[in-house]
Amino acid sequence: MILPYAVAPAVAAVLWIFLFSPGMGLITHVLAGFGYDWNHAQNSGQAMFLVVLASVWQQISYNFLFFLAALQSIPRSLVEAAAIDGAGPVRRFFNLVLPLITR
């Protein structure tokens, strides 16, 4: 899960080039099979999507670890007490969990 964060940016760039290369990319060929012409060198929207996708792929695992640690720090008894008092899942999240993980 933490592997994308540990990959060097240059190595990640080569990986994404191999996946989305217009001539030999694996994902490009799959998209062509569905009738979608992918060429990020000619379409700036596709190029921006590729930059965002690569950034999200590399950073999501790091952010997820912090979010998971914050969720695990919430005492289970508080959540159970809120459920016993009649708070639904949405109310428990917004009134109990979210304030506790933002501190």
TrEMBL record:
One of its GO terms (cellular component) is plasma membrane. It comes from the Bacteria. Keywords: Cell inner membrane, Cell membrane, Membrane, Transmembrane, Transmembrane helix, Transport. InterPro entries: MetI-like, MetI-like_sf, UgpAE/MalFG_permease. It is a multi-pass membrane protein. GO terms for biological process: transmembrane transport. It is found in: Cell inner membrane; Cell membrane. Pfam families: BPD_transp_1. Its main location: membrane. Residues 1-103 form the ABC transmembrane type-1 domain. The chain crosses the membrane at residues 48-71. Belongs to the binding-protein-dependent transport system permease family. UgpAE subfamily. The complex is composed of two ATP-binding proteins (UgpC), two transmembrane proteins (UgpA and UgpE) and a solute-binding protein (UgpB). Part of the ABC transporter complex UgpBAEC involved in sn-glycerol-3-phosphate (G3P) import. Probably responsible for the translocation of the substrate across the membrane. This is sn-glycerol-3-phosphate transport system permease protein UgpA.
